[in-house]
Hints:
Residues 265-490 form the Aldehyde oxidase/xanthine dehydrogenase first molybdopterin binding domain. This is CO/xanthine dehydrogenase Mo-binding subunit. Helix content is 26%, strand content 24%. By secondary structure, the protein is of the alpha+beta class. It has three domains: 13-40 and 75-195 and 284-379, Aldehyde oxidase/xanthine dehydrogenase, molybdopterin binding domain (Aldehyde Oxidoreductase, domain 4, 2-Layer Sandwich); 203-280 and 382-553 and 803-949, Aldehyde oxidase/xanthine dehydrogenase, molybdopterin binding domain (Aldehyde Oxidoreductase, domain 4, 2-Layer Sandwich); 557-801, Aldehyde oxidase/xanthine dehydrogenase, molybdopterin binding domain (Aldehyde Oxidoreductase, domain 4, 2-Layer Sandwich). The chain starts with a strand and ends with a helix.
Amino acid sequence: MAIQHDAADPTRALSRRSFLKAGTAAGIAVKVSVLAPPAQARLMEASPSDGPAWAAPGRPRYRLDAVAKVTGSKTFSRDYRAKDLPGWPDRQAHALLIAATCADRRFTGLDLSRLPASLQPDRIVRHEDLVADGVAVPHADFFGDWFLVPQGETPRLLGQPVAILIFYDFPRFAAAKRALRFADDVVRFGEATGAKPPAHYGASRWVRIEGETPDAPDRFSPYEHSPIFAGFSGDKPAWPAPGQEGAFPKGMAAAAAIAAEIDGAGEDALVMRRTYRSQSTDASAMEADNGNVWYDPATGILHLMMATQSPYDVAEAAAGLVAKSRFPLKEVDLKVGYTVGYGTKDHHIFPFLCVVAALYADGRPVRLANDRFEQFQNGLKRHAFHMDTALLVDRASGRFRAMTGRYACDGGGRPNYSVAVSFVGATAAQSIYYLPKSDFQAIALASRAVEAGSTRGFGTLQTMSATEMLVDEAAALLRIDAIELRLRNVMRTGQRNSQGAVPAGALRNEEILHKAAAHPLWRERVARKVAYEAAHPGRRYGVGFAQVHKDYGTGAEAAVASLELDAQGRLRLRHVAHEMGPGVTTSQAAMVGEILGRVPSETEFGVVRWPEMPLHTTDQPYTTPQAEEDRRAQDPRWTPRFTSPMSATNSAYYLGHATRTAARFLADHAIWPAARSLWARGGKGGALASYNEITRDGLRLADGEVRGGGLPALSLAEVAAEAHRLGLAVGVTLHTFNRWQWAEAEFDLPGTGRTRLPIDALSLRYGAGAAPERRALMDTAGWHFLPRTAAFYPPTQRNNVGTTYYSPMATLAEVAVDTASGEVTILSHHSILECGRQIVPALVSGQVQGGLAMGIGHALKEVLPLYEDGPGDGTWNWNRYELPRARDVAPWNQTVEILPPLSETDPPKGIAEVVMIAVVPALANAVAHAIGHRFHDLPIRPERIREALA
Length: 950
C-alpha cells in the first residue's frame, strides 16, 4: 500500500512498509554485505551448473540450495558466533533481556538475589545508562520512545525489556538464564497506575462513490481526491465534519450519504450488519530473532551479524543510533545471513537492542538470541482485528449496492506498521467484488499488548476473511447459491477498486468462480452431506467456499540486477534479492534461462555494493509531486528508492522485473547483433541475405543455442565470442522502480541511439573488441554508467491507488465436525490459483502447501490472548500454542489447480501471501454448512463448537 499518514500532519505520506531512515552522521561509512568465505560455509547456494544436475533443459529440477538444505549444511544467522566471523575476536559474550510481565504498575527496579555471586552479570544495562550516554531509539514514531523501561515508569507494553544483562562467558549466562526463567520476583513493581500505552497510532478512511457511467470519474474516491485521515478523541477517531469544500469534508459527505442509504433501505434490499473478530497470532518462524554485534571502541567500527529482512535499514538506523551517542563511530559493517520470518523480521526493534547490548560489552562481541519463550514474549505478532461491517444487497438482482466497514486493529505498545496494516486491511476488504459505493475505516489502536507488525497477510487475511464469511451468509439469507451470488458481483477487468483505481491486467476471478462451481465438492455437496452423515453418526458434514485476491508490492519497489555474458557463453548473475525461504534465488536464475536459453553458471545474491550504479536516494518515495520534481531537477542521479526489503510478496514480479529486463537487454544488444553478424558471413550477406526478414522477435534461445528464421543454429558460445569481438554490450547492470507502474528512462546507447527502457538507471560493460573510445567510457568501477537523457516516474498521485496488482485464489474445504468433541476434521480441500506465468512450478506448489497450513492454523487452532494472560508473561511456547500438524491439513487429500497463463508473455505474480487467506473463510463457511451455526470470531476451536451445539 502507498499511504500512511501521521494524524497530526495529514500532509506527511509514508509507505505501507516504508521506513524513514535516520540521517547518518557525516563521515560514517555504512557497509552491508553477505558473509564471505570461509565464514559463510553453505550460507549461499551453490551456483547452478550448465548440465542436467540443476537444470534440464534450462529449467530447475530442484532449488539451488536444495543439497545444502537436505544435508544440513545450509546455515542461518542464528548459527554464527564471533569465532566464525573473519576478523572478529574469538571471545563471545551473551546478553539476556529482562522483561516486564506487568503493564499497569510502576517499574521500581531489579532484584537479582536469586543469582549467587558467581552468576551475577558482568554488566547490567538500564534505561538510565542509555540516557546518560545519549543512546536513543531510532525512529521513535515507529519503534516507540524507550528501549528499556525507565525506573519509576509504567511499561508501555507487556514483555517490554527493563534491562539487558551481559555475561562474558556462555556457562554463566546459561546458568543464570535458567535461574531467572519464569521468576516473578526479579522485576519489582510499585503502585498501580493503570495501563499507559502510547497514543493511538492513526486512522484513515477510504470512501468511494462511482460515477454516472462506468467510464465517468468517480463522484468521490481516494484516487481522484484523497483518503481521509484523522486523529483521535479518546479511543475513537475524530473524523472531519462533512462539507462541500476540501477533500476531507467532501469525503465525509460521501460517507454520510452511503450510511444514509444503508439506514434508509426498504424491503427491496437486504441489509446485513455483522461484527467479526480475528485473533492475535504468532508467525512461529523456525528461526527466532537473533543478532551478534561487536562494537570495537579502538577502531570505532560497529560490526553486526543480523537476522533481518531489511539490512540496509538496519545498518543505517544503527549508524544514526550510535552516531548520536557518546560512543565514537567511524563505520558500520553489517553482515547479512540467511533468515526466515514471514514478515516478522521486517523492521523490528530487536536488532537495535542487539546494538545497545554491544555498546556496553567492553569491546566484546555480544550475541542476543531469543529462545522460543522469549520469541513469544517479544516477537512481532499478527494484529488482532475488530470488524464492524454492513452490506446492502438488492434482493431482486442479488447485486451489492454498498458496503461499509470499521476495521480496528490492536497494534500493541509500539507503533511499528500498525497504521499501514490497518489501511491495507481496509482497502482489501472489498475482496473480489465490485462495490458501487464503499466506506472503509482503518483504525490502528495502541494497547499494552505485545507489539504487532508486518506478518504474512498484512491485515488482508483478517478483513477479507470477514467479507467472505459475510457474503456467504448473505447468499444463505437470499437463498442464492453462494458461488452464484459471487458471480453476480465479481469485479471484472476494467472496473475500479475501492480506492478508485483500475487493477492491472486481466482479472480472472470470474473464471475461477466458474471452475469452483463445477467442481464435484461444490456440485455434489448436498448429496455428499446426506450420505456422509448417514454413514457416520455423530458427525456433521460440510463444504465451504471462499475466494479472495491479494495485492502484492508496496508502491515503492526498487531493485538492482546485473547480468554478464563472457566470451565462452557463460552467464553471471548478481542481484539484490536474498533468500527468505520461498526460493527467490532459484526463480531469478530460472528467469534468465527462460529468456537466454541457459541458466547462469555463476550467481551471487544479496549483493549490496553496486559501485557501477552510483545513484543517490533519500529513500522517501512517497513525497509530493513538486518535491520529487525538484529533487530530480537538482540531482540527475536521484531515485526515490535504491532497493526494497524482502517483503510484500515482491520477488517474482518486482525483483524479477530487473532480472528479466537485464536478460532481454543482453538478448537485444549483444546476442541478436552478434548472431546477425555470424549469419551474414561468407560474402554477399551470407546465409542471412535471402532470409533477411528475420527480426529480433524471431530469435529463439534454448538449450544453449541461438536459432530463428530458418537460419543455421549457433551455439551460445559462438555468439558470445562474436559479441565480445564486436565490442558489444556484454554486461548490463540496471535499476528499477515501481509505484504501481514502472518508471522508465531514455538512454543514448552507443551504436544504437536513443532507447527507452522500463528502468531508471543503466550501466554497461563492453566486449574486448570495443573501440578505445568506447572502452574509455567504462570509468565507473569498470562500467559505463549512462546518464539518462529523460526520466519518466509514475505520478506521485498513484500513491493514493493503494494497489493495482492482484493475485486471486479460491479454496473449497470439505470438513466433518464431531458433535461430541467439537473437533473439526478436514477431509479434503481444493484450491484454484492464478499466478500469471509460473517460473518454477514446484516452488509455487510449496508456497501453496505452506500457506494453506498457516491458514488452517489461523482458522481452527492458533490464538494468543492479548493481555495479561498472553505471551507477554513469558510462559508461552509451542506447548501452549497449538500449531497445525500434518494430520490437520489433509496432506494426502489436498489438490490445487493453477490457471494457465493467458499467453507466454504473461508476467509472474506475487503469491506468497494470498495462498494462506481463502482457506480461512472457506473453513468457517464449511463449519456453518456442517452444523448450521455461523461463527464470527476466529479461531473456531472445539470448545466453541460444543457450546454452539449445546
